[in-house]
Amino acid sequence: MFLSDVDLNNLLYGHFMPHKESTDNPQVRKIILGVSEYLAAQIQMEFNLPDSTEVADACGVIEHKR
Q1: Fewer beta carbons within 10 Å, N or C terminal of the chain?
Q2: How far is CA 30 from CA 1, 38, 45, 61, 65, in A?
Q3: Distance, C-alpha 30 to centroid of its chain
Q4: d(Cα 56, Cα 66) in Å, to the nearest integer?
Q5: Domain limits of the chain?
Q6: Tell me: the pLDDT tens digits for 49-62?
Q7: Global confidence as pTM
Q8: With contact defined as beta carbons under 8 Å apart, do 28 and 19 qualify?
Q9: Is 22 in contact with 65 (CB distance < 8 Å)?
Q10: pLDDT of residue 1 exceeding 70
Q11: Amino acid 10: pLDDT
C-alpha cells in the first residue's frame, strides 16, 4: 500500500495537517473499510490499530517541536 504523507496522516490521526507531537489529538484506533463487490453486496473490514507513533515518526508525519 502506497500512501502520500497527507493520506497517512489522515489514516493515523484523522486530519490532513502534519501531526504535532505532544498535542491532545489522539491517534485513530479503529478503521472500518467498506468495499462494494461487483454485482454483490458490500464487504466490510474492521482493523484495530496499535500505537503507531514509531511508524508515524519514521514516515515523517509527526511535526517535532524545535
Answers
A1: C
A2: 18, 26, 11, 19, 27
A3: 9
A4: 18
A5: 5-63
A6: 888 888 888 887 77
A7: 0.59
A8: no
A9: yes
A10: no
A11: 81
